[in-house]
Amino acid sequence: MSFHGRPLIDQEARGKYWASLLHQANDGKELSECARVRASHSWVDRKSVALSGRDYVQVHHVRVNTLPTRVRTSCGRRVVDGPLIECRAGCGTTKTAAHVIQGCHRTHGGRILRHDAICRIAVSSLRQLGWSVRQEPHFHTREGLRKTDIVAVKDQVVKVIDAQVISASSSLDDSHCRKVAKYDTPHIRHQVASEYGVENDNISFSSITISRRGIWFAASATSLCELGLSKCLDSITFRALCGSYMNLLRWNKMTTHISGYTGTNSVSGRFEEKA
């Protein structure tokens, strides 16, 4: 068995072949990062997960980016006077899964709930390990107010951590670096050192960086494991995936609309608003 001269005799070779095709596709490109962190994919093959069968199927849709949206369901039918692909909430952009979950004003509250739930998981695990945790302290800097999610202290060591769930359009590496650079400044380091009475060398900055599809940034996961949080990575992955799916459900149940929206097909628009 071969394809374009590439032997596909054993199961491992066939798996790598199909994976390479998936990672070259637009929807599968982000999944190429899965292999770097086990928590990004370990839940897929687990025989018992803290999800119902229905939820397990739905979070798979989130992971492989097959949630039904106007852009996806209109593939092959995008012609003049065809189905609308704009966001029904009047955002003036196309309705993709990334927009619904990460950008639409209808799901702003859901994104906050997802973010806060992830922080609660990390804070609870840190406290169980003996860390003294302060949530959302305020740092006044020349650039303005900075509120990091977590400051953990233990044995004269301070860890400053901020959480973020990002879209596939953003690089995991770049997002992590920008988040760390935002807080790792001389001014904030001085405030932390003064408040907790520690040396600058004992202060480190990191992030909880995971995508809306449950893909971890390797350096972020490694820094959490160094704090003893390896067991909570799966829980954070589940929460990120479930939160993303709940955002889609939230969007479908809401009717808020930005004034000034104009569609290209008024008949379809009226039908969609009533549906």
Question: What report would you give on this structure?
Answer:
- With 275 residues, the chain is an alpha+beta fold.
- 44% of the residues lie in helices and 15% in strands.
- The protein is built from 10 helices and 8 strands.
- The chain has helices at residues 11-24, 53-64, 70-73, 97-103, 108-128, 172-183, 186-196, 218-226, 233-253, 266-274, and strands at residues 2-3, 6-7, 132-135, 138-141, 144-147, 150-154, 157-166, 203-211.
- The protein has a 4-stranded mixed β-sheet with strand order 3-6-7-8.
- The longest helix is centred in the middle third of the chain and has 21 residues, at 108-128.
- It starts with a strand and ends with a helix.
- This is Reverse transcriptase.
- It comes from Trichogramma kaykai.
Q: What structural class should be given to the helix and strand makeup?
A: alpha+beta
In total, how many beta strands? Answer: 8
User: Which radius of gyration do the C-alpha atoms yield?
Assistant: 22 Å
Strand order, largest beta sheet: 3-6-7-8
Shape: globular
Strand content: 5-15%
Proportion of helical residues: 40-55%
Summed up, the helix count is: 10
Please tell me the overall pLDDT.
84
Sheet bearing the most strands, described?
Answer: 4 strands, mixed
**N-to-C SSE string, H for helix and E for strand:** EEHHHHHEEEEEHHEHHH
Distance between the termini: 49 Å
Unreliable segments (pLDDT under 50, ≥5 consecutive)? 261-275
